[in-house]
């Protein structure tokens, strides 16, 4: 099947725009879509000539287009100035995959020392060896196995970070997740597991670092920044109610910590991603994910998923001194969804809420 190129290379050439990152997706029907996020760095012309994209699609990952896609991904750069995080030490939980990986990678490319922590050590090690290739100016990734639901593991993580990096300037509470279920089918243990994974973990790790490091610093200039990754749950989170509730807890905890710790120079903020395509994240939902994506994309004002790098930029900004007057906030990265409800649950239940007062005209019904 001939490949229909959607690459906006003409625009890039004409306006000399800058390209930061690329999102590619095979739709399984022989078409590869290439989305360019036209922002920061200049795309080399030889990579993005319109004519070079008229190749038939393969799904092996080895064709010319895939090669160019990978090349483009590896060109993804940061909008922040080189060396911005030199001398800074940061913990990113869940940093071996998806959003956490993108955040850790951007930080290390800016010179930070970063501990990535999660349960699967082999995933962390593979990620670290990849990321260390893009490290700049002394940036380095260290790995630490940690189940964030376990308080002993949390204490060991903080000990490891202090010993290897000599301090902690930033924390990204990104590890998290949930499973899909209607409320009535969630067991108490299941609900508790999700609350522990997303809320208790954030409380335990933030507190541990505060008590052992931030509260001990004489020099308040060496301040701390915590960024909590939550999700777009402003109007509830049907089919993942446990997670919606846990993240609402994180948002409120964020405000309390922000107000209590501001005197110690510690800032605390939330980032609420909308629907961000990460291979690892979506793999948790198996076949449901594909169907979900096709029904949900038209409901996103931007008509596309976000990329991990688009979340990472905001997280890195909040960690940086550029955000020194920002604390207690929750910011969405959601393509215009306004941190609203993700329509996980199709409303195909019929007229279950019948009007009690008066008649509802036919045209006002589904
Ligand atoms: C309707 C359409 C759906 C579309 C799907 C696309 C969704 C896109 C959403 C976009 C927004 C959000 C994106 C993301 O969050 S991406 C990140 C996703 N990553 C993860 O979720 C990974 C982490 N998740 C987990 O580790 C688990 O879900 C959990 C937090 C629960 C931990 O599980 P674990 O097995 O370690 O827990 P326990 O062994 O302690 O078990 C405790 C109880 O939990 C019950 N449980 C666990 N998994 C499930 C399940 N899949 N379904 C039902 N119940 C589950 C388990 O049974 C235990 O309870 P019981 O003893 O009572 O049985
Ligand atoms: N992708 C999206 O559309 C959205 C994602 N989010 C949130 O962003 C965060 C990252 O998601 P994403 O990167 O997409 O998905 P991933 O599944 O790739 O990331 C989840 C990460 O958390 C780690 N993790 C999960 N449970 C634990 C645990 N108990 N202890 C330690 N680490 C744990 C996992 O590693 P391991 O399994 O090795 O422990 C994994 O690295 C999550 O909190 C997610 O809920 C929010 C909104 C939208």
From TrEMBL:
<dbReference type="Pfam" id="PF13561">
    <property type="entry name" value="adh_short_C2"/>
</dbReference>
<dbReference type="GO" id="GO:0006633">
    <property type="term" value="P:fatty acid biosynthetic process"/>
</dbReference>
<keyword id="KW-0275">Fatty acid biosynthesis</keyword>
<protein>
    <recommendedName>
        <fullName>Peroxisomal trans-2-enoyl-CoA reductase</fullName>
        <ecNumber>1.3.1.38</ecNumber>
    </recommendedName>
</protein>
<comment type="function">
    <text>Participates in chain elongation of fatty acids. Catalyzes the reduction of trans-2-enoyl-CoAs of varying chain lengths from 6:1 to 16:1, having maximum activity with 10:1 CoA. Has no 2,4-dienoyl-CoA reductase activity.</text>
</comment>
<dbReference type="GO" id="GO:0019166">
    <property type="term" value="F:trans-2-enoyl-CoA reductase (NADPH) activity"/>
</dbReference>
<keyword id="KW-0444">Lipid biosynthesis</keyword>
<dbReference type="InterPro" id="IPR036291">
    <property type="entry name" value="NAD(P)-bd_dom_sf"/>
</dbReference>
<keyword id="KW-0443">Lipid metabolism</keyword>
<dbReference type="InterPro" id="IPR052388">
    <property type="entry name" value="Peroxisomal_t2-enoyl-CoA_red"/>
</dbReference>
<dbReference type="InterPro" id="IPR002347">
    <property type="entry name" value="SDR_fam"/>
</dbReference>
<keyword id="KW-0276">Fatty acid metabolism</keyword>
<comment type="pathway">
    <text>Lipid metabolism.</text>
</comment>
<keyword id="KW-0597">Phosphoprotein</keyword>
<keyword id="KW-0576">Peroxisome</keyword>
<keyword id="KW-0521">NADP</keyword>
<comment type="subunit">
    <text>Interacts with PEX5, probably required to target it into peroxisomes.</text>
</comment>
<dbReference type="GO" id="GO:0033306">
    <property type="term" value="P:phytol metabolic process"/>
</dbReference>
<dbReference type="GO" id="GO:0005777">
    <property type="term" value="C:peroxisome"/>
</dbReference>
<keyword id="KW-0560">Oxidoreductase</keyword>
